[in-house]
Amino acid sequence: ASTLRAFDPQTKKTIWEQPGFLTSHLIAIGNQVLVVSIDGAIKLVDATSANYKPLAESQLPQTESPLPKVK
How far, CA to CA in Å, does 13 sit from each of 8, 9, 20? Predict the structure, then answer.
């Protein structure tokens, strides 16, 4: 597992850290970030908060093989 971090782009200082994330894709949506992990976990996080603040969570259904087979 990895740690999700928010940082100030001007000072390069870490604002908050939240451990327990797998490899994820981050999608900015205004002042929020959608985090989609390789295990199908989806979290909507407040990107302006001084602390880690999840706004919503969900889980994609698990499949037998997450990637299509190459023929």
Answer: 6, 8, 21
Nearest-angstrom CA–CA distance, 7 and 68:
35
Query: Taking 70 as the threshold, does the pLDDT of residue 6 lie above it?
Result: yes
pLDDT the model gives residue 66? 63
Q: What is the pTM of this model?
A: 0.79
pLDDT average, residue stretch 10-34: 95
DSSP string, 11-43: T--EEEEEEEE-SEEEEEETTEEEEEETTSEEE
For 9, the token pair is: 């782009």
Among 46, 59, 55, which residue's Cα sits nearest to residue 15? Answer: 46
